[in-house]
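Feature request, filed as a ticket because there's no other form

It would be nice if the structure record came with a short human-readable summary line next to the C-alpha cells. Right now we just get the raw output. Example of a typical job, pasted below so the devs can see what we mean:
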Amino acid sequence: MDKTSWVGIILGFAVLIGGMILKGSSPIALYNPAALVIIFAGTIACILVAFPMEEVKQIPSLFKVIFSESKMATVKEMIPMFTGWAMLARKEGLLSLEEKADEVEDPFLQRGLKMVVDGQSQEYIREMMEEEIAAMEDRHELGAKIFAQAGTYAPTLGVLGAVIGLVAALGHLDDVALLGKSISAAFIATLFGIFSGYVLWHPFANKLKRKSEKEAKMKMIMLEGILAVQSGLPVRTVEEKLLTYLPVKDRVLEAETRGKDKEGVRVEA
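Raw output as currently delivered:
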C-alpha cells in the first residue's frame, strides 16, 4: 500500500472540511447531489470523449498503481544479487546462470539474463531492453495523461456548475433567503471542481509519472548490471558500478556494511 497517496487524500479532505468550519460554513453544504453529478459525472463524460475505450479501460489498473507500492527490487537488494551472478559467471561461465534466470521473478530481469545465457551480443541485449523500457514509458505516459486531462476538465466544469446554479438562483429573486442558499449551492460545484482537479487528478497524474520514472531508472540499472555480468567484469567492479546509483551517504554505508559482512562481523540493525 502506498501510504503517501492515502495520507495525502485524507489530509486534503480534512483541510477542506476544517477550512469550511473555520470560515463558519457547515460541511453539510458539501452534500450537493447536483454539484457532484456535474463535476464527477461530467469529468467521466469528458474522459470518455477524449480517449478511446481501450485506454479508458486501463483506469482501474492505474488506481491500483497509485495506491500500491512497487514490488521492484531496490539497488541495495540488487547489489548482492548481481555480484553473486558475476562471481558465478567468472567461475563457471555464463551458462551457469541459466538456473538463476529461472529463479528470477521480475520478467524484465529474467528476459535479460536469459539473453545473456543464450549468448546474445551486448548491442542486441541493450537495444531490445531499451526498446522495452521505452514502450513501458509510453504506456505509463498515457495513463498519467488521462488524469492530467481530468484535472484540466474538472475546474472548468466547476465554473459550468456555478453558472447553472446561478441561473437557478435568479429564479428566486423574490425570496432573499432562498436566493442566498441557491447562490451558496451554486459555488459548491466550483469548489468540487477545483478540489478534485488540484487535490486528486493532477496529483494522481504526477504520482504515475514519478513511479514510471522510478521504474524506468531501476530497469536501466538492471540492464547495466546484466551487461556488467556478461562482460565478465570482476565482482568488485560490478559492485562499484551499482554503488554509483546510490546517494553518496548510502553508498558509503552500503560499502561499510558489506565490508563488515565479509569479515564476519555481526551488523546491528
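Something like this underneath would help us a lot:
The chain has a mean pLDDT of 84.
The chain is about 80% helix and 0% strand.
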